[in-house]
């Protein structure tokens, strides 16, 4: 299977993981943990599958989106993805555990170790050290895929195709200060780690503060950016899902009533014939 075919089937983040480190990221991960490449690859794919199922089955909360944006403001995740020597660094374990908790939640992250261990044929101890590194790489891949568009949003420069509809279902709300509606920076600006972290942290706080608001959400583009980065499938919006359920129920009810009337008509006709 070609690299492009694998990316199409397994999603854009897998494509980034297979692109990184001159296409040797998974092999380097295996070497860092003294594992055959097949076992390391299985562990990564199991994590990506669990993440995809989690995002498909449970829409991200606004708070989770804010945490994700904060993670994406940390350039260390991209460095982990691109630097083989960082795979075994204590700092990677630290930021990787943060990533695990945001991506899966603390409880699910704890249960994921045994699941990955069983699927990949590795010990739980190895899995517990492996998972934070893979989580850091996943966030690094997501950062590569979404960074430019998030910064474009912050700079009030729309960069998302209008026909892209796979948006996350998050609670509707609005930001409070409007800071990101009016911020315009030069297109050639290059952000250092501190500046980038501040920008993303401010955006995360704006998203979090809008959690209880009822107006139209100005951060819908951020949802779409993250959705595309994760390769999420499009969902029905809540009102359409309710309409679909109501319509199906109404059609079933109408069909039942029509059948009952037809039966009554046939019964009456038989009685009249007698």
Secondary-structure element sequence?
HHHHHHHHHHHHH
Beta content comes to under 5%
| Fraction of residues in helix | over 70%
Largest sheet: none
Shape: elongated
Broad structural category: mainly alpha
Beginning-to-end CA distance, first to last residue: 74 Å
> Assembly type of the shown chains?
single chain
- Rounded Rg: 24 Å
Number of strands: 0
Low-confidence stretches: 160-190, 234-244
pLDDT averaged over residues: 78
SS summary, helix count = 13
Structural overview:
With 274 residues, this protein is mainly alpha-helical. The chain has 13 helices and no strands. The longest helix has 36 residues, at 238-273. It is elongated.
Write the topology of this structure.
Blueprint: H1 3-10, H2 12-23, H3 25-32, H4 37-57, H5 62-72, H6 76-82, H7 90-104, H8 106-120, H9 124-154, H10 179-182, H11 193-209, H12 220-230, H13 238-273
Quick recap of the structure?
This protein is mostly helical and 274 residues long.
Supply the key terms:
single chain, 274 residues, mainly alpha, 0% strand, elongated
